[in-house]
Amino acid sequence: MASKRRRLSRSGEFDRVYRDGSSHATRYLVLYTFPRRDEEREDIRLGVSVSRKVGGAVERNRVKRALREAFWGLSDKLPPRHDFVIVARSEIAGLIEREGSAAATKCLEEALSSTSAGGRST
Q1: Strand 22-25 and strand 29-35: pairing?
Q2: Sequence-distant (≥ 6) Cβ neighbours of residue 9 within 8 angstroms
Q3: Which pLDDT score, from 0 to 100, does residue 42 have?
Q4: Cα distance from N-terminal residue to C-terminal residue, the chain
Q5: Top-level CATH class of 4-113?
Q6: What does the alpha-carbon distance between residue 77 and residue 120 come to, in Å, rounded to a whole number?
Q7: Are 105 and 73 in contact (CB under 8 A)?
């Protein structure tokens, strides 16, 4: 489980990623990326946004957990010093219910492959 420090929690942090970052949309989610500059910390931070259109509180929390788990499973492929925000679209709840957390991982991989932050060269 990711520590609180590795999460975006303030609306200003989300706004900065939305405003100054780049985005890639798929059928099931939108992924925003923002490279942080001039900061000592090299960690990756994540924010997840799931609206009421996805479902009730239980369903939204299930989607958020699946997306966080999928994201941190892929974190070794991500560049340092980046903030990411995942915005879930309404169809993702049905996808995760039908196909499980592997579907969330597949959606994130698709979005990451199309962004400039989609891979770390090692």
Answers
A1: antiparallel
A2: 47
A3: 74
A4: 25
A5: alpha beta
A6: 6
A7: yes
